[in-house]
Amino acid sequence: MSQNVLKVEDVTMQFGGVVAVNNLSMEVNEGEIVALIGPNGAGKTTAFNVISGVYAPTNGRVSFMDKPMVENHPKGKMRRIYHGEKDGVYKQSISKTPDQITKLGIARTFQNIRLFKSLTVFDNVLIATHMRSKANVFSAAFRTNAAEEKANRQKTSRLLEMVGLSDEQGEISTSLPYGKQRRLEIARALATEPKLLLLDEPAAGMNPQETLELAQFICQIKKDFQLTILVIEHHMDFVMEISDRIYVLDFGKLIAQGTPDEIQSNPHVISAYLGVQDDE
Amino acid sequence: MKKHTGRDLVLSLLLAAAFAALLYYFQYDKAASHNYAVSILERSAIYAVVAVSMNLLNGFTGLFSLGQAGFMALGAYTTAILTIPTHVRQSVYYMNGIEPWLEKIHLPMVPAMIVGGLIAAGFAALIGIPVLRLKSDYLAIATLGFAEIIRALLASRPMDRITNGSYGLNNIPGFKSIYQVFGIAAVCIALMVLLINSSYGRAFKAIREDDVAAEAMGINLFRHKELSFVISSFFTGVGGGMLAVYMRSIDTKTFQVALTYNILLIVVLGGIGSVTGSIIGSLLINGGQEWLRFLDEPTTVPVLSSLFKPGFRMVVYSLLLMIVVLFWRSGIMGTKEFTWDGLFGLFSRKKKKTGGA
What we know:
The complex is a heterodimer.
Chain A (H helix, E strand, L loop, with lengths): L3 E12 L2 E12 L3 E5 L6 H8 L7 E6 L2 E6 L3 H6 L12 E2 L2 H7 L1 E3 L12 H8 L8 H5 L4 H17 L15 H13 L5 E5 L7 H18 L2 E5 L3 H7 L2 E6 L2 E6 L1 H5 L2 H8 L6
Parallel strand pairs in A: 3-9, 3-10, 7-8, 8-9
Antiparallel strand pairs in A: 1-2, 1-4, 4-5, 5-6, 10-11
Chain B lengths: L4 H24 L3 H29 L7 H16 L5 H4 L7 H4 L5 H23 L4 H20 L4 H4 L14 H19 L2 H11 L1 H6 L4 H27 L9 H14 L4 H17 L10 H4 L6 H16 L12 H17 L1
């Protein structure tokens, strides 16, 4: 029985009167690649932002390795305008900040690449090792942590080699071609030593060839780093190729879940994607 | 890239030696004109410390703060109060008298400066808790306000017996030798450079580049911003202490917003995010302001005689600044640091240009 890495329970995210994610529950088990798909505006990225701590959900709970890391229930003004379900089930208010969540072992990439723009490729990855280093500001400034610093630099070199960016390590990150920037962002996320990797539309803007390479790359790093991966994606071929299980969101609600084969033949999914109207 | 390290080291040592020799010459040859040059250099060094510490915050961490004058005032007053010799204190505080508990507390110069820095850092830590949640312009306005509050508090009536209120403080012992001021400035700047090049410095830069991504990489935004703010304020406080020792007498008018703008000017002119840029900027601003003094003097050149009046200097100075900012958008150094390779590259590029034309 594989262990449950991420568990999302009844998460509702409401902005004012708009319910962006409605009562989403999902699980990601150890060693899986799970995809979260859905048409534009279905609430995928919002769900991602709740998991990574950018937004506190209006209601619901997110647990990582069986420990709740985000939990909330409608309060104050939101109590009155709350449209979601399961009000009153979750009593606690826990909201870990994104950096605490990263420290627990969840790393993420961004839909619109967010690199440290004017810094070099090497520094981009090296910065991500800062969180795990034990140095305080004095030991770092006076170089008494030289051994650790050296280890971090070696780790960075190794990571860049693994993602195939060794030759570009001295270049400014934004000067890289798009596909390599994606890889760099993944390398940077890996430098935080995650157990769970969240990829937000990693294949966006890529041609079929690049997408294929990316799929292989993701399977490779999953094996090398013993990762569990949750990915948001639009490219159906890509999703069908890499994922073990798929969750489908539409208008903030989960409409289907299952293996790629099940999803492909699911009438709800087909109608959501192709806009076919149900005859009733 | 690394083949020139030996040469660079030699050249840097030569530059330092030449500077030391120049200082020695100034001290050895006791002509009055040298005192003038030395005092400009000293002020440049002090402004450079404050400019680099402002750069640490504005240029490297990306927090646009304008509280420098306030923190300098804290450092300056602390240093002044602690270093004024106990036997002249009664005469310094002749209007209001001095608090009895303060009367006997006396520290040598360097420890007094460190205490001044610590007090500035302590205030920064308190101010930072509410203020660092703001961003860009709002942060600038909030820190500006706090700097004015600090200044007003120092001049306020209840503080009369500590800060001597609006009468200011004088009889502050000056630097014992000219090496002292450059030594302290060099140590302060070296410490900040060490910090900037450490993993914390990189984390600061990450926050500057993209705070959302930095947070997703596990960098605790508030903790690192607060750290940068406190360290920057510490060195600003030390710089203020140096200014007090350099000026020998201070009052709260010295630490008005104009002082912050002066430092900001140095940082922007030198390049936001460049330590060497701040040092060069400090030399240029302090030296330039003095060098242009001839514009204030009357002249016999026909057309210019109507222009050269007291105040004309600042017109030209401001024009020059505008020209520099227009043509070097990101300051003289941008975010790069001074390297010998860069200097030689500048010459060889120029040569190539003339050769080609």
